[in-house]
Amino acid sequence: MSAPLVSLDHVGLVYPIYSVRAQSLRHAAINLAVGGRLLKGSNDVIHVKALNNVTFKLNEGDRLGLVGHNGSGKTTLLKVLAGVYEPSQGSINVRGQISSMLDISHGVDWEATGVDNIKIMSRLRGLRGREIRERMDGIIDFSELGGYADLPMKTYSAGMATRLMFTLATSFSSDVLILDEWLGAGDAAFLHKVAERMDSIVAQARVLILASHNFSLLDATCNKLLVLDKGSVVYFGPKEDLPDELRPS
Asked: Strand (E) positions, the chain?
């Protein structure tokens, strides 16, 4: 049997929350000249355990749905998997390229044109000049920008900007695809294209990890479920074995 594509071993994340007083001291220390000391009182810091002892493995073809109430740790877990947060304990091993769609506006330069943003985002994904040129027309056509592609993004309507950001976010293949809610973008006329595109990129991914409050979507899309409560795993396994008491009403 081949090695898992995604493996988490006793992963935990603890981060501090500073009080107003401690945060003010922290900012003051940062603004000091070289040699300044970071000042904080022990009574002014609260440590939050966002994830606790999270362990699971995913193999080729797995589609994992994350289930849990607000504050259960779903988005935090996705950010740890995407490399946004470094775990405080445990280890994460991912074989292959990760594509995370946690914030599709991340990296967008609003002063730059649509064309320039396509180039920027493509280079961040490791594409070279010829590959970018080959993809350019398709990205512009799908996002329905027309002549606006050569104008700064700050001149775009909300719908135009959303269409371009969605198109950019879904234009690159990946081995492990991470989604926080199923993406929807633009007006009603664009939603049919969105649905087809989402189905396509999910089908191409070797592993999907999807957090959503829509349990029907998770049930239809995923073969495995992970239920979180206050940062701890209360269930991980096949969706059909999920206990009734953990099934969202």
From this structure: 6-18, 45-58, 63-67, 89-94, 98-101, 176-180, 207-211, 224-229, 232-238
Element (H, E) at 142: helix 129-143
Alpha carbon 212 to its chain centroid, in Å, reads 12
Residue 243: pLDDT above 50?
A: yes
Note the Cα 154 to chain centre separation in Å.
24
Q: Number of H helices and number of E strands within the chain?
A: 7, 9
Record: fold of 6-96+210-246: Rossmann fold (3.40.50)
- pLDDT, the chain, mean: 85
Numbered ranges of CATH 3.40.50.300 in the chain: 6-96+210-246
Cα 119 to the center of its chain, rounded Å: 21
pLDDT in tens, 10-26: 999 987 766 555 555 45
- In the chain the first and final C-alpha atoms are separated, in Å, by 37
Secondary structure (3-state) at 47: strand
Query: Has this prediction a pTM greater than 0.70?
Result: yes
The backbone torsions φ and ψ at residue 206, rounded to the nearest 5 degrees and listed phi first, read -75, -30
Rg of the Cα trace of the chain?
Answer: 21
